[in-house]
Amino acid sequence: MNTKEVLESEERINQIVDTIIEIHDRKTYNREFTSILAVSSIPVLNTYYDLFKKKNHDLKIATIYSFEANPDLTEDEIHPRTLLDNQINDYNEMFGTSYSTDTFQGYYQDISKKSKDKKIDILLVVNMFLTGFDNKYLNTLYVDKNLEYHGLLQAYSRTNRLCNDKKAHGNIVVFRNLKEKTDEAIKIFSNENALETVIMKPYKEYVKIFNSEVEKLNKIVPTIEKLDDSKDVETEKEFIEVFRNILRTLNKLTPFDEFKFKDLNISQQSFEDYRSKYLDIYERVENPLTKESILNDIDFEMDLLRRDDINVSYILELLKGLDPTKPTFTKDKDFITQTMNKDKELRSKIDLIDEFISTTMVDCNVDTEEKLEQFMNQKRENAIKELVTTENLKEELIREILKEYEFSGKIKEKNVDETFNKKLKLKERIKKRDLLVQKIKDLIELFTW
């Protein structure tokens, strides 16, 4: 049997493309991270690219590879440079750029930057970007080529740059049998026992770990009501530590293709209830007016709580689907607010969205996106004016601080002090400054949509 012919057949590659489209969002946490697809040759890469173009999906695909100036081509073959130019034209159309193979270095730099900015979902390569490319948002490597020894580890290592609590590991999705080569490379370049620490445990092992933590959770707080009634900070501390372990393990479980919530010894509804309580405690502890407690020293690892399926686009789509004339309107509206309550960033905006629905969406013929933007801009303007009035501040200076914080994420204490209209004593000024800094951060977070 001609193995090369089988591996490079369009039928096989078509099946792989379908698989990647199906699993990509799960592997990358709904595109919070990005990926590389490494293939065996330029002709194979072009087959992949053409098949991706024919499929129905919204993934942003880009390619990059080096080519020979004078390759041996048959009469029917197209020069790789021409094919790459066609692919770069697609890239230009997607991103509004104007590169070509004549400006290859500029294209290389731009594709590297856009990958790091998570603007490319899948980068198709042959050899480029498999060594030395450092992108903390790259968490998945799809492999359809033979790799071994140092080259294998170099390629796999593209996914291991830690980014946040959610990226505890990288995903290597291999469409060839590289198990022996992988084990051999790890043993040669690490040690005989390294397999246990380099390769993740099987799915069932993580299910067992998860369910063990659920058992601990049930002993501490058998029901969410017990946590509501509890005034015991020690109980809350135990809950946070155990539920954080549950979140860590779930984070490892969800990228597995076989993951199903029914394998876990907790219902999805109960999990969401505990998750909401975890968020409540976090917000209480983070409040600057809250008294010091033993909970202040706990790292809640909030990145683990990010809901990638619940984002602004998702909420906007739900809002667009609201129809005040339907009998399900109230139920649909409640679903939106309940959904937002599950997300750390969105739950602070629930009152705003509730007001937007009540005051603006009185009929189904409004341009939801445009009206929402107008509503948010007006509310933001009102909030700034209220802040200036209640805190007796210089409006022009406070607007400059808000603008700078939005751009850089930084607030200079000296600039804050200069916004005060009234001259304050040192102790009073420091206290007012700290409160004002928090109010500025809260305002920007509330209206960042």
TrEMBL record:
Organism this protein belongs to? Methanosphaera stadtmanae (strain ATCC 43021 / DSM 3091 / JCM 11832 / MCB-3)
**Source species, domain of life:** Archaea
List each copy of the Type I restriction enzyme R protein C-terminal domain by range: 198-446
Q: Which InterPro entries match?
A: HsdR_RecA-like_helicase_dom_2, P-loop_NTPase, Type-I_R_enzyme_R_subunit, TypeI_RM_Rsu_C
Where in the numbering of this chain does the Restriction endonuclease type I HsdR second RecA-like helicase domain appear?
32-177
Which parts pass through the membrane? none
How is this protein named in the record? Uncharacterized protein
Whether Secreted counts among this entry's keywords is no
Instruction: Enumerate the CDD domains for this protein.
Output: SF2_C_EcoR124I-like
- Keyword Repressor among UniProt keywords: no
Q: Could you list this entry's UniProt keywords, alphabetically sorted.
A: Restriction system
GO biological process: one example: DNA restriction-modification system
